[in-house]
Amino acid sequence: xxxxxxxxxxxxxxxxxxxxxxxxxxxxxxxxxxxxxxxxxxxxxxxxxxxxxxxxxxxxxxxxxxxxxxxxxxxxxxxxxxxxxxxxxxxxxxxxxxxxxxxxxxxxxxxxxxxxxxxxxxxxxxxxxxxxxxxxxxxxxxxxxxxxxxxxxxxxxxxxxxxxxxxxxxxxxxxxxxxxxxxxxxxxxxxxxxxxxxxxxxxxxxxxxxxxxxxxxxxxxxxxxxxxxxxxxxxxxxxxxxxxxxxxxxxxxxxxxxxxxxxxxxxxxxxxxxx
Length: 275
Description:
Blueprint (H helix, E strand, L loop, with lengths): L5 H9 L6 H12 L5 H16 L8 H15 L17 H7 L4 H15 L3 E6 L2 E7 L5 E5 L5 E3 L1 H12 L13 H17 L5 H12 L7 H12 L3 H15 L4 H16 L3
Antiparallel strand pairs: 1-2, 2-3, 3-4
Helix pairs in contact: 1-2, 3-6, 8-9, 9-10, 10-11, 11-12
InterPro entries: SirB1_N (IPR032698)
Pfam families: TPR_9 (PF13371), Transglut_core2 (PF13369)
Protein name: Protein SirB1 N-terminal domain-containing protein
């Protein structure tokens, strides 16, 4: 049994030369769900292996791989998403997505990627703005895109452009269609959790652990430190929150002195709540 805390293991796994995205998501699940233990992580990994075993061996080119994954995951096992999944925290937790066969586009794409990788497919994640999908083949040559949220439906170039323009109002930049970095994917998953919790003022506990895990990634937005400090104050830890606000003010003071002074005022107000 691994006696390190899930957070420590998460930080270590994020610094591996080749981060294991499935493991990172399952460790996030341990932080989110007290019911997920080491045996549960093993069961999730075994389920990914089992699903991979049902994919035909070397079915052909990129389109054949995409179709094979769609038949197994989308048709046979019913992995897909709906608008209701955006309202559920467990739509962002890999072990729950494997159990429910429902989730957000990025988590369903993760299932597709992990199963396909285990089956030997040339697969990668594609971080379209607002809608994550997967690619099969050579991202800079012969490839196809598929949408796991829609059961693995293959996407034409026009389909992908419409998805992007629906969010940004502009056609996609070529770089958007390239392979997404595993740690960028992990940060995007945590951002989804933060957004879910931010819309629910009673779930600052979820927002806090999501911010704290994001801060354990080797690269993260500095402003997350400010968000964590604000959450600590909101949750009644005035002293720690004030100290972290002051530390953040020092970071931004050189580039944004007025913003730094505003943060210092927030720190003073937090300390005053102790009196």
